Task: structure prediction
Amino acid sequence: MASEIKFGTDGWRGVIAWNFTFENVRRVAQALADYINENAPSDEKGKMPKIFVGFDRRFMSDLFAADIASIFRSNKIDVTLSDRPISTPVAACLSLSKFWMSIMVTASHNPANYNGIKIKLAGGSASARVTKDVEALLDQNSVLFLYGQKAEQKDCSDVYFKYVSSHVNLKKIKTFKGKVVMDYMHGASAGYMEKFLPEKQVIALRAEHDPTFGGAQPEPVEKNLSVLKKTVVEKKAALGVAFDGDGDRVALVDEKGTYLTPCIIAAVLCDYLIKNKKLKGKIVQTVSMGYLLKRIARKYEMLFEEVGVGFKHVAERMALEEVAFGVEESGGFAWKGNLPDRDGLTVALAFLEVMASTGKKASELVAEVAQEYGASVYLRKDLPLSKPADKAALTEKLRKKMPKKINGKKVAELSTLDGLKIILENDEWLLLRPSGTEPLLRIYAESATKKDTLALLEFGEKVTAPYLK
Result:
């Protein structure tokens, strides 16, 4: 019996040689081919649009991608296959203009034994409707894989670099003279910053191609950035930057070696863009983000909305509405005029632009945000699950168990948008949510002090303990 394939918050992922196999990749490729042939718009001559297939640096990503491209060719689809590993933002950018759809073989920030497939349309992640349609087409037709159907291979990354160049203030960035430490985490975006800053200003860490990611998980969260933090301080650098395995997520470290949370990065960028570039529209964030953007929206009388976890939910809003700024907690940021998708490089360059324009250090920008919108200590804890949890059922059980007060503070609101978010009377909050891509229960919390945030995490761990067995 064929194994079940489900697309999560951003694509389908599995363990290599367990459920992410050539057989299953070919099943997905055929379903994608059927979807493309049924839905891709043809021109006045009846010619179908081109499709792009890219891959990251993971084990056998290039071979999986080659199979997908060959199956597309066998199904009479005009396809171009990347001739080298690329970041996911490159694939997303290509789906904005040169290609109708991009398929990316990557498992993003997951451990090295994982791989996956992402679908990009119109510059962003495919909607839930599209992925459900692809799932429905699985095994409807036998895999058509004809011998000798190799796709044209080409480097298309220049399209992306030109796009990025036109969407940041390169002139201003070139006035920035400080050193930047880049932790590429052995990922596909290695060397990308050097295309925008002189090599003498860039100190590169973990830039080599290593499918094992040096034995670490290529996720730019604080626990994985000790070397970056230490190097920034030792080299007296102005900023530390880390990208995940496929380059769409980003983390930043200030000149003191302090990790900047996504909440703080978002507040610095959003406030600057509103003040200096007259950004207008709605602010959208995933439910796993905090109160700083809500306060910014309140100050500038902008609409504010929270959506489910996964940048595709933010991207959907950006495609349908006038969204000024969108963000998710796992290092994904976008704003009006850019790709409606996560892009680590653009975020890093934009932050450098803010530093160059204001003449302020990263820590000074953070201090300004804290002074104007309040302090923010944001933490996340991941707890392993023995098996994937039923999110709706677990959320309802937790909701029924919630007290009226947590750590002496009144519960003001309970949101079940995606997991259970408990908002306290002073804006502090706690989110309990099973991951959509891994067998984990994620606990998020934010308050004005580390002590209070840790207390919220402790409460979250205690209340969920009976369900982790």
Summary: The first helix runs from residue 22 to 39. The two ends are 29 Å apart (CA to CA). The mean pLDDT is 94.
